[in-house]
User: Fold this.
Amino acid sequence: MNRFFATVILFAVAASLAAAIISWILTTYHSMMWKPEILRIKEVNIYQNEEENSWWLKIVAVNEGEGTAEIYKIEIHGIETIDINPAKTIKPGEQKEIQIKLNKQYTYGTTYTIRLYLKSGSLYPILEKVIKL
Assistant:
């Protein structure tokens, strides 16, 4: 009977170790494959083009991560949401200026919150400075 219990315990320990090793390998493999984008927003500005009488959003960003950043939607909180098709991409190590034409009217002297939505699931909330004349 003692031999039976020893065999069962040995089998349980071996199965537990195998499960732990397999989960560690899968987790390590996933973390090595996952290469996120990391955007550093250098400049954000909402300005009015006097010739067209239209408002524009200018974003200057640097991708400091290892994955390509794909911005597919921009939201100006409480005002409008703009779907970007095709998505604006910023490759790793690249700095890019993005210009987006806005559909609504904006007011000078107002602070707006801008959100960038990326295809990776990341969300970048940016508190915009006051629009200047």
Observations:
- The chain is about 25% helix and 45% strand.
- The chain has two domains: 1-34, 39-127.
- The two ends are 89 Å apart (CA to CA).
- Residues 1-34 form one domain.
